[in-house]
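Pilot study result, target chain (238 residues):
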Amino acid sequence: MTVLSVDLGNTRTKLGVYKDGSLIQTRMLSSFQLNSLKQDYPNSKVAVSNVSKNEYINSLKKNFRDDFFELTYSVRLPFEMCYDTPDTLGKDRISNAAALVDFSIDKPKLCIDIGTCIKFDFVDQNNRYFGGSISPGLRLRLAALNQKTENLPNLDFKKPSSFIGNNTNQSILSGVYFGMLNEIEGMIDLYIEKYPEMNIIITGGDAIHFDFNQKYSIFADENFTLRGIYQIYLFNEK
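Predicted structure:
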């Protein structure tokens, strides 16, 4: 059986093709490609997590009909929800929590998703999801500095070579990058202090800019959210 795992995120749409339980292909999709998925994969089912692109959902429902599954707040989840306001929880975070359950058994586990925002999501050794944290990602920080000040420029991100910026552009890039780096490492230290046996995984489009393995034992999986969408689909099919 082929299942298409589709993550309709804030800034991009990503597809994972699962066949008989294995991820065999990933693609970044345009709106045109999204609408032609049924033609590209005619004998497949589709599982969708939608963060912000509501206009595409009806098209997918129409094309896939009985083979369509959407992650909503009413579906069954492979973990115990202990979040105080589950109906406000981002579906990408729900997907990451589901992937954590599949990723690590009988240990506390943490997902760090570095994209538009930095999202920490924690599941304990009994598969109870408690939440985590959200803060701005690289490009949100750069945009805020430009939009909320009079004279700071609007920069594209480029990893700085030094933490000491020798001009305004380099000072901004240093503050944003090394500020994020120290924030993430500080949060990891807080978790490890309380849960020393914890397993950690990092994902997200901007995770490639950070290397934590010199200091921590961290797994990396750029397709972790797709994995969670797929696991939620399987859990509801059982």
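One observation from the pilot: DSSP finds seven helices and eleven strands in the chain. A full batch analysis is planned for the follow-on phase.
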